[in-house]
Design a protein that fits this description.
The complex is a heterodimer of chains A (about 150) and B (about 375). By secondary structure, chain A is α/β, with parallel strands linked by helices. Helices cover about 25% and strands about 25% of the residues of chain A. Chain A contains three helices and seven strands; from the N terminus they run αββαββββαβ.
Chain lengths: ~150, ~375
């Protein structure tokens, strides 16, 4: 399935989604409340079968915090990028997709560790690299006077 | 007397927690595994990582693209050249620079040499993990020959930093082709010895066949890539599916097995060395003439947008996800490192096996710790 067909198909699942044809992949912006259901549909539908979550990254967009999911189907070889943003910087929370793709377990722990985004229903949400005394270093407002030199 | 025996049995039913690492010879780096045992049986493995977390992704946000290349060497130090290539390809894709054939071919040859030397070191240490110390000497002896070629070409032995955005740092050494051909000739004779030493060994087979099986569905769900996944039948070779550099002009086959246990993960890597030699042989006599680098602007600024590039390192798929806001350094750079993902399956496949098998399973996943921690 090419990008246009895939875009139309995802549009038919939910008409309110914001779909953008990026340079490389099809990009779908999902509100956090709909993320889990859309992910589950894309995984389970016969004509999409996105069974391989090959990258999950947390991003600090300045105002918002967001998570980007890169999904591929090993059968059809098509790719879609899901993006979900939350504007709550104090208690950011998204739904975990760890029960759909098991690889999300570690990825989500990394995002929680470095950006402080919590994932609801995650089986084991602990910090991964750093201990609890650290802040969230990948955030743009992270302050470290000793190690980060600003010119 | 009878009472004592009963108490011993009930003790065995209890879980016993031991700490493996961070300093342990078989974890190949500072990986700490907290293992719950029942007798000798592994109940669960909890990896604790972050001992050498350097925050490379954060550092990248404040340095320029040519500088980032030198940090990628330090992630998976055994696939240093391939990591460099990933960042260069991302930058070149963003700037839409056309890369001359000479650069593509040299990059491919260097990548395959990197893959061979990485698998050699893995073979050496995997044999050692299972008690065959001879492997270690054989593997390192042969790896030295590739490192000598690297040293002659670019000065570095492990952390080569040979790539730069737009091409290569320097042209190849006049002796490059000669020495690579000599190595291939030598290694074609030596590689069957590896088989005789380990692959056909009864003790080795006993310790690896049926140990740590990974099914195709689990491999995909856990996102495992590289030889570890191809041993389970997951066709995930980026060189085939999304050819970059000069992989579209060479003939090679993707190594696929369906066994999925420690033994097949081992065989997949041995077979990959043969394929890598095939690729090098097809290219080494046909390096086109031309410049070794495209002239780039002194300060590289990428246009605003998002870019994703994936390459096949010796351990699996390395993805570079780059968000640019138009400045000279990236807004966000994420490395989807193969080892980080491959580690997550360890608990799943080691469950129910003996503690000695955990060493074999960990070795067969071929983990490089700096790539996990980044």
């Amino acid at each position: 399935m090419d990008k246009i067909q895939l875009g139309e198909l995802i549009k038919s699942l939910d008409t309110e989604l914001e779909i953008k044809e990026g340079k490389q992949f099809l990009e779908v912006t999902v509100p956090p409340s709909k993320l889990y259901l859309l992910a589950k549909k894309l995984r389970e539908r016969e004509d999409t079968q996105f069974d391989f979550l090959f990258c999950l990254s947390g991003v600090d967009y300045g105002q918002d915090l967001g998570v980007v999911y890169h999904l591929r189907s090993t059968k059809f070889e098509h790719v879609v990028v899901l993006k979900s943003r939350t504007s709550d910087r104090e208690h950011p929370q998204l739904d975990s997709v760890a029960d759909i793709w098991k690889t999300a377990d570690f990825h989500e722990r990394e995002v929680f560790d470095l950006l402080g985004i919590k994932f609801a229903n995650h089986p084991d949400l602990r910090r991964l690299f750093l201990d609890n005394s650290w802040g969230f270093p990948l955030r743009k407002d992270y302050v470290d006077d000793i190690n980060i030199v600003t010119k | 007397m009878e009472k004592n025996i009963i108490s011993v049995i009930s003790d065995e039913k209890q879980e016993y927690i031991i700490n493996m690492g961070p300093q342990h010879p078989s974890t190949h780096g500072v990986l700490r595994l907290v293992v719950s045992l029942q007798g000798e049986k592994v109940i669960s493995v909890q990896p604790h990582i972050g001992y050498i977390h350097r925050g490379i992704e954060k550092m990248c946000e404040s340095i320029t693209y040519p500088q980032i290349i030198h940090l990628t060497d330090r992630m998976d130090y055994l696939s240093a050249h391939i990591n460099n290539e990933a960042v260069c390809l991302t930058v070149e894709k963003a700037l839409e620079v056309e890369i001359p054939d000479r650069i593509k071919v040299i990059r491919t040859i260097m990548s395959e040499l990197t893959r061979i030397q990485s698998h050699q070191l893995w073979w050496a240490s995997f044999g050692m993990d299972l008690g065959g110390l001879t492997c270690f000497f054989y593997g390192l002896r042969d790896r030295e020959k590739i490192l000598d070629i690297f040293e002659e070409t670019c000065g570095g032995r492990m952390l080569v930093s040979y790539n730069c955005p737009g091409g290569l740092m320097y042209d190849i050494h006049p002796n490059f082709q000669k020495h690579v051909k000599e190595f291939i000739k030598y290694f074609r004779k030596i590689l069957p010895e590896y088989d005789q030493l380990l692959t056909g060994n009864v003790i080795f087979k006993e310790r690896s066949k049926g140990i740590g099986p990974l099914s195709l569905e689990d491999a995909i769900s856990y996102g495992i890539t590289g030889p570890s996944a191809r041993a389970s039948g997951f066709s995930c070779d980026v060189r085939k599916h999304e050819p970059y550099s000069a992989y579209d002009r060479v003939q090679f086959k993707e190594i696929l097995f369906t066994g999925g246990d420690t033994y097949y993960r081992y065989v997949a890597r041995i077979e990959e060395m043969w394929e890598s030699m095939n690729i090098i042989e097809q290219l080494i006599d046909n390096i086109p003439e031309g410049p070794f680098a495209v002239k780039m602007k002194p300060v590289i600024k990428l246009p605003e947008g998002e870019y994703y590039q994936r390459v096949e390192t010796a351990r699996g798929e390395l993805g570079v996800y780059l968000i640019s806001d138009g400045n000279k350094n990236p807004y966000r750079l994420k490395f989807r490192s193969p080892n980080f993902v491959n580690l997550s399956v360890l608990n799943h496949i080691a469950k129910g096996f003996k503690i000695a098998d955990l060493v074999a399973i960990g070795g067969s996943l071929d983990l490089v710790i700096p790539d996990i921690d980044r």
